[in-house]
Design a protein that fits this description.
It is a single chain. By secondary structure, the protein is of the alpha/beta class. The chain has one domain: TIM Barrel (Alpha-Beta Barrel), CATH 3.20.20.190. Helix 1 packs across helix 7 and helix 3 packs parallel to helix 4.
Length: about 300
């Protein structure tokens, strides 16, 4: 009963904050004409990598994980395929793999990582100026897949943007035809070296807290974001995840209803970033069950930055 009361209180706190503050910020009214090509629509020669507010997905390749209606509701964080997410406008992917090169979330596994790679390559073949941050990590409790860097380079080598601090200050046009910033986070294998085709874990950071309390997560996201440097002086990507996760001590364990407690407050979070003078620190914003409005919220702020409106 105490846990249910805490959740109810925190949901009310966010609802009241939204009612009092709204969701107005520079670029909030912008809607890309074509989400599949939204970077191209902003002008690749004008869009610097460190000006982008990257819409991302959490546990990106879980659309078919587990058994439908049995284990899937406890592990599925996205209902769309990787290709569908990219077409919708997602530009940061969070992929977890095990020693067998299968995508997994905890103890549950799903399709081979080849499915992810093929979806990424299909999307790249249909677009010309869209840059993707592809984070691949070995899931906790699993071993690194053998020869995985070699496999990734064989599959994606022509698209890979090599690890280089100067990338952050470059425009999309200056990076083309390279299209993928691939962050590889093994558990025990050597981390990618400077100048290699892959980026190490030092280049994609966050401050994850494991909670199902929406206001607690919202406030933690804001606190840790405020501790970062502005994007203009940062040489790594920083991610804020607009998610909450099921907890074992609560009767609701399915991902969708739990993460729904914070899902609709992405625009409120951006608004609060301006209110608390840390909007210049926002870079990657990720979510479960991504939708078009979430993408538009990020793209709108990106457009405002590119046009010098903030």
């Amino acid at each position: 009963m105490e846990r249910r009361k805490a959740i109810s209180t925190e949901k009310k706190t966010l609802s009241e904050l939204h009612a009092s503050c709204g969701e107005t910020y520079p670029g909030c009214d912008y809607r890309p004409a074509d989400r599949k090509n939204w970077m191209a629509g902003l002008g690749p020669e004008k869009v610097h990598i460190n000006k982008i507010v990257w819409p991302g997905t959490h546990d990106s390749a879980t659309n078919k994980i587990g058994i439908p209606l049995i284990t899937r509701p406890f592990a599925q964080c996205q209902s769309l395929s990787i290709y569908q997410q990219l077409v919708l406008g997602t530009r940061v992917l969070d992929i977890r793999v095990n020693e067998n090169r299968r995508v997994c979330h905890g103890i549950l596994s799903t399709y081979n990582v080849d499915v992810v790679i093929n979806d990424v390559k299909k999307f790249l073949s249909e677009t010309q100026s869209e840059i993707i941050i592809l984070e691949i990590r070995t899931e906790y409790g699993h071993e690194d897949p053998p020869d995985f860097e070699k496999y990734l380079e064989e599959q994606l080598g022509e698209f890979l943007i090599h690890q280089d601090d100067h990338v952050f200050g470059k425009t999309i046009a200056e990076l083309l035809p390279k299209r993928i910033i691939c962050v590889w986070k093994p558990r025990k294998s050597p981390a990618p070296k400077a100048g290699s085709a892959f980026w190490s874990s030092n280049y994609l950071k966050d401050n994850w807290i494991d909670t199902d309390l929406p206001s607690t997560k919202f406030d933690s996201n804001m606190k840790h974001l405020g501790e970062q440097q502005p994007v203009s002086s940062r040489k790594f990507f920083y991610r804020v995840e607009n998610t909450v996760t099921p907890q074992a001590d609560n009767p609701i364990l399915c991902v969708k209803p739990v993460t729904g407690r914070i899902h609709d407050y992405a625009r409120l979070f951006i608004t609060q970033c301006f209110s608390k003078n840390c909007a210049d620190r926002l870079q990657i914003l990720s979510t479960d069950f991504i939708d078009g409005d979430f993408v538009d919220a990020c793209v709108g702020l990106t457009q405002a930055r590119v046009e010098g409106k903030c």
